[in-house]
Amino acid sequence: MASNIIKIIICILLLKFCNSIVMPDGKHIKSYASMGLTSVPRNMSTEIQMLDMSHNQISEIHRLDFQPLMRMTFLNLSFNLIKVIPAEVFQFNTDLTYLDLSNNLLHNTECSFLRYTVALTYLDISYNKYEIMILGEEFLSLPRLNFLGLSTANLSKHNLEFKSPLEIDTVFLGLDNIIVYEYRSLKGLKSKKLHISLPKNESMARTIVTDAILSSLSLELSNVLFTSGNNIYHEKETPFLKNQKLSSLILNNLMLTWTSFLGMLKDIWSSSLISLFINNITIIGKVEQLNFTYNDTSLKALTLKKVRFTIVYMDHVYLTTLFINMNIQNLSVTEAPMVFMNCPTYNSTLHFLDLSNNVLSDQASQVCPNFPVLESIILRGNKFKQISKVSKMTKMMKALKHFDVSGSQLHYDGGPEECGWLESLVKLNMSFNNLQHTVFKCLPEKVEILDLQYNKITYIPRNLVHLTCLKQLYIGFNHLSSLPGCSDFKNIELLVVENNLLHSISSEIFKDCNNLTILNARNNPYQCTCDLYNFISHSNRLDMKLVGWPDMYKCKYPDVFNGTGLKDFSLPELSCNIPLLVITVLIIAFAFTFSMLALCRYLDLPWYFRMVWQWTQTKRRVLKKKSSQLLPDMKFHAFVSYSQLDSDWVKEYLIPNLEKGDKPLRICQHQRDFIAGKSIIENIINCIEKSYKSIFVLSSNFIKSEWCHYELYFAHHKLFSENADNLILILLEPIPQYTIPAKYYRLKGLMAKRTYLEWPKNKIKHGLFWANLRAVIDISLPETEMVTCV
Ligand SMILES: *[C@@H]1O[C@H](CO)[C@@H](O)[C@H](O)[C@H]1NC(C)=O
Ligand SMILES: *[C@@H]1O[C@H](CO)[C@@H](O)[C@H](O)[C@H]1NC(C)=O
Ligand SMILES: *[C@@H]1O[C@H](CO)[C@@H](O)[C@H](O)[C@H]1NC(C)=O
After folding, report:
1. Can you state the angle between helices 578-603 and 605-625, rounded to 10 degrees?
2. Which residues line ligand 1 (CB under 6 A)?
3. Which residue among 210, 328, 396, 490 has its CA within the 20 to 30 Å range from the CA of 107?
4. What is the rounded CA–CA span in Å between residue 362 and residue 343?
5. Contact yes or no for 176/153 (Cβ under 8 A)
6. What CA–CA distance (Å, rounded) separates 565 from 556?
7. What is residue 617's DSSP assignment?
8. Which residues have CB under 6 Å of ligand 2?
9. DSSP 8-class letter at 728
10. Gap from CA of 108 to ligand 3 centroid (Å)
11. pLDDT value at position 415?
12. Contact 488, 447 (CB under 8 A)
């Protein structure tokens, strides 16, 4: 039943915004409300289950209007102009459970259409044009009915006497426009709850109220407006005393004098009433200081909501003393002009005290020892400012568990000595205040549920208090930019940090907070970096509920991720995993070194570098010398000295390579270009002197040959005498230093300077070798016939 009502309420709310929806549970809802319809539309979907056609101008209903809607369970036709409902109209709607026909022009109480609506639980035919209300046989065919709304112009005894077995849970009687009311008309009514909306006529209203109190178990009265007289019922009847079965009374829109109000309370005090709820009460005229004696009473709960006085000045001490001394369990005086709360004059029986939305201020916060059993105080929406004063209120209330001072102007900047919380407080609500991080210096130690939402807290200080009992912390809608771990509240189970300024949620939170099962951290300006990434990857692994995930978790920074859902944002695994990053860098570095080594080993890179270096050096020198160089007596580009054993290489490679091509070079070879008649030494000297450069082909053979050393000696000598670098060493094969005999110290010296050209074994490198050699000896010589070396 309750769940059905909730469903219906949801439906109605939803219908306000859109007119055709399918509920999550598959219910089809269609609204034609306030669309100016004059008749029921044709061709409606046969799927429709809930149909709202209220606030239209439909005047006629036809027999087959609802025939196609065989699945319909809810129909609202209120606020139309319907006069008659044909008997067969709901023939095919046997599932109909809710039918609202209120505020129409129906006048025939013979509701023959009810014959088919056997499933009906809710029927409202109030505010129609019924002259008299005689419930016909048809109502007997509604075994499941638990709500019935009726209205009539005339009500007399026996009209409402239903023939059993009809027993309705709630009957609503809209008697606003009643003309004739016969006293005791409600007598036969067998319903658990009766709700009556009263007429303006005070005398008639008084009769109805008296009757209603006498006839019900649970009563709700609306529009109880009595501006004259001393009571809301006929005094001689004292109906509260006569009906010892009435347990609950709700009065809506009550308007009466203080005297009437107190009179009514007095009667109620001696009655069987357990709970009195007055919603929207206006006290007219003076508030006289009448005495009120608190006899033993059945009353347990009194609620006054929206209390208004028509006079400005009144004795607040009298008023609050009157209420606070009441010997009941629950007292609520909310949305009233109470300016303070004073201590009861004797030990109070109150368990629950709600003074929300009054104008209580710090001056009202007295330390009261007279609340021995008070468990909850709700002081929401008042004008408290200092937490130190408010906290001291609780100090003497030994049974207090729940304290609510939300919605004030609380702030705190003092030291801990100013706080006076009752230590055993379990639930503390200080939301909607002006508190800052300093509030953590002023909290009851054993608190389990702490609400600090909507304050101005920028951070949670560490190591201030150890709230070891704290299980639920609500700190949403503050200015937090970071979250501490749980070191100060180890047993936290629920943490609400929504709508703060959190950039990140450190995954540390999972390490410290072992009992955390629900985390609400939605709507924060998340910075989508590694920290957060780690958190997200962590969160999937834990069985912790993230409220609002994933829709309400979005990246704010960096700009590229702005608006991206945390769920969808991803960084390369590598950039967030430091060990992995280090390993990768090491691998890359290793691979690089390894490939460099391989290149050196197999491609002989250093050789290339050396050759290119020498070549560029030579080019530079040549350029520098070019202008100054006049070599009139030079006949050869180079003289070649080599061991006879290396002559194959010289003849096969060296000579052909230098003497061929576009610019053939002239080479002097002592075997080929010798002048007969001269001694070998003379020939060598002659050859060296006529050559621009001297090329020595070094090899182990060369070192063994004496002649070659002579030649080297002369050439080197020339080098020094003319201060020119005319010596070119070609290393045919590696010659270890130690194999060179000590007496050839010149050669040793030259070798040590490494100014030689190495003959590469690899053919690919030969091109560069020859280019380099040519560059060294390439020079323009005077055009002479190249015949001899003389
Ligand atoms: C029918 O519609 C009227 C007007 O919108 C509304 O006040 C009433 O509560 C609705 N009836 C039911 C049973 O929901
Ligand atoms: C008194 O208040 C408590 C706490 O709100 C509530 O649980 C209880 O039902 C109330 N008692 C009556 C009789 O209304
Ligand atoms: C604290 O009070 C606020 C407003 O008065 C309310 O919305 C909130 O639900 C309360 N918190 C708890 C934990 O009951």
Report:
1. 70
2. 8, 12, 54, 76, 78-79, 98, 100
3. 210
4. 15
5. no
6. 9
7. H
8. 274-275, 300-301, 329-330, 352
9. E
10. 51
11. 66
12. no
Cis geometry, peptide bond prior to residue 632 (ω within 30 degrees of 0): no
Please report the pLDDT score of residue 754 as a whole number. Answer: 59
Ligand 1 pocket test, candidate residues 52, 79, 100, most atoms within 8 A of CB: 100
| Ligand 3 midpoint to CA 369 (Å) | 27
Residue 5 pLDDT level (bands cut at 50, 70, 90): low
Three-class secondary structure of residue 381 per DSSP: coil
pLDDT (0 to 100) of residue 716 = 66
**pLDDT recorded at residue 725:** 67
**Does any ligand 3 atom lie closer than 6 A to the CB of residue 407?**
yes
Tens-place pLDDT, residues 609-628: 777 777 777 777 666 655 44
3-state secondary structure 83-140: CCCCCCCCCCCCCCCEEECCCCCCCCCCCHHHHCCCCCCEEECCCCCCCECCCCHHHH
- Does residue 707 register a pLDDT over 80? no
Amino acid at 230: N
Query: Which residues lie closer than 8 Å to 234 by C-beta, 6 or more apart?
Result: 206, 207, 210
**Under 8 Å between Cβ of 378 and 350:** no
Residue 52 or residue 133, greater confidence: 52
CA–CA dist 711, 717 (Å, integer): 10
Q: How far is the CA of 78 from the centre of ligand 1 (A)?
A: 7
Mean per-residue pLDDT, 212-239: 85
All domains of the chain, ordered by start, with CATH?
198-314 (no CATH), 635-777 (3.40.50.10140)
Give dist(CA 309, CA 305) in Å, integer.
13
SS3 content of the chain, % helix, strand, coil (to 5): 30, 20, 50
> Which residues partner with 449 through β-bridges?
427, 472
Closest ligand to 427 CA?
3
pLDDT at 235 over 50: yes
pLDDT, tens digit (0-9, with 9 covering 90-100), for 55-112: 999 999 999 999 999 999 999 999 999 999 998 999 999 999 999 999 999 988 778 8
Which residues have C-beta within 8 Å of that of residue 325, sequence separation ≥ 6?
294, 344, 345, 346, 348
Query: Three-class SS of residue 674?
Result: coil
Total length of the chain: 790
Q: Does 509 have pLDDT greater than 50? A: yes
**566 DSSP 8-state letter:** T
Lay out the sheet containing 727-731: strands in order across: 667-669, 636-641, 691-698, 727-731, 756-758
Distance CA 409, CA 387 (A): 9
Can you give the three-state secondary structure of 449-493, one letter per residue? EEECCCCCCCCCCCCCCCCCCCCEEECCCCCCCCCCCCCCCCCCC
User: In a mutational test of the pocket of ligand 3, which residue from 335, 403, 429, 477 has the highest number of ligand atoms less than 8 Å from its CB?
Assistant: 429
* Residue 17 pLDDT class (50, 70, 90 cuts): very low
